[in-house]
Amino acid sequence: MSDRTRPRSSDDRSAHASDPLWDLESMLRDVPASDLTTMARSAGRALGATDARILVADYGLTSLQELGDYGPTGARAAIEGTSAGLCFARGSIVVASDEPTVWLPLAEGSERLGVLELTHTDWSDEDAALSEQVLRVLVLVLVSKRRYTDVLLRSRRAEPLSLAAEMQWDLLPPLTLTTASVSVSGILEPAYEIGGDSFDFALNPGRLEFAIIDAVGRGMAAVLMSVTAINSLRNARREGASLETAFRDTDEVIDRQFGGGNFVTAQTGALELATGELTWVNAGHPLPLLVRDGTYVGPLTCRPSLPLGLGGHLHELGSYRLHRGDRVLFYTDGVIETRDADNQQFGIDRLADFLVRATLDGVSPAETVRRLSASIMNYEGADLNDDATLLLVEYHGPD
């Protein structure tokens, strides 16, 4: 057993003062929150690398940028068509064939943060095995420190972030969650100018609860409605209220605070993990799409109620029993209404086809929504006419 993998006990700190892995663990206490580059170099030393740097994914999940002492530094690398991007997309180690470079995925559970790039001349199976421990510690450090510094969030910016987008990104949960029973992944576009679209989810005992919304308008007026709606739905969820109560309360608060015909469309629901029973409320929103056994089944129907804020009654609580492996895609209307240079809409058929092909290819939910989002942006080739948001739920079956 090598020195780098030798077990340590809590009463021999002095004996392991020079142990790189021990040094890395000590950073939980010792390294200032803003000194993230030191953490990257120490992780590299623990793995025998001569140099190391952290590449973080931008808000749009299209590129990776080196994390510097004060923010982004160096050239930006595209996720598509690069070794670093392949590591990020697949979530697995990539070793260069023609240079001494190794890329390792950085993820907090299922939330992808970026990659650790190492200059390493003699990468071995032993290094690969040890990297699981080192990356676990490094991610723990990054996650615990990032709340106290702007360095990591600065490095996520491929372009300036609007104030409305800043508010929306701070409101969001992690973009993806994966457990033995369920996966859920979401994404917002345009990432740097998002306005009224948003989503939320929480994994609570025995169930996944979620929402996707679209506030009328754009800019700050829309984002203020969106923030109000998400927090109203979140408050109802945390108070243990039913979907019906959450609908009624949020409808009232949007009307009371904004009035004048302003509204928010929404899908809010819950998935029972033991049974696969999906229930949801459709508040004037596009119907979700179901893919089962690699085949597009069609939209899940639920009689629509009026959007939140217009004082309507709840007409129906939708219900559908999901099977193991089913994928349900919730989306805002900006997705299918996106138009190309010839004024052709992206449309439901194209959306469903992409989802089917990703499912048949075994692409993870997180990577499916990332690729689909990129396809929507590339389809139009210009700025979106409306926000476009995706929320994909995949049911794995009871745990």
Quick take:
The protein is an alpha+beta fold. Helices cover 34% and strands 27% of the residues.
Q: Major sheet: order of its strands?
A: 3-2-1-6-5-4
What's the CATH class of the largest domain, please?
Answer: Alpha Beta
CATH architecture of the largest domain: 4-Layer Sandwich
Number of domains: 2
Poorly predicted residue ranges: 1-17
Strand content: 25-35%
The overall strand count is 17
Structural class: alpha+beta
Largest sheet: 6 strands, antiparallel
Compute the number of helices. 11
Oligomer: single chain
Helix amount: 25-40%
What is the fold-level CATH name, i.e. the topology of the largest domain?
Phosphatase 2c, domain 1
CATH superfamily of the largest domain: PPM-type phosphatase domain
List the topology elements:
Blueprint: H1 20-30, H2 36-46, E1 51-57, E2 63-67, E3 72-78, H3 83-90, E4 94-95, E5 101-108, E6 111-119, H4 125-145, H5 151-155, H6 163-171, E7 176-178, E8 182-189, E9 197-204, E10 207-215, H7 219-238, H8 243-257, E11 264-272, E12 277-283, E13 289-292, E14 295-299, E15 318-321, E16 327-331, H9 333-336, H10 347-360, H11 365-380, E17 388-395
Antiparallel strand pairs: 1-2, 1-6, 2-3, 4-5, 5-6, 7-8, 8-17, 9-10, 10-11, 11-12, 12-15, 13-14, 13-16, 16-17
Helix pairs in contact: 1-2, 1-4, 2-4, 6-7, 7-8
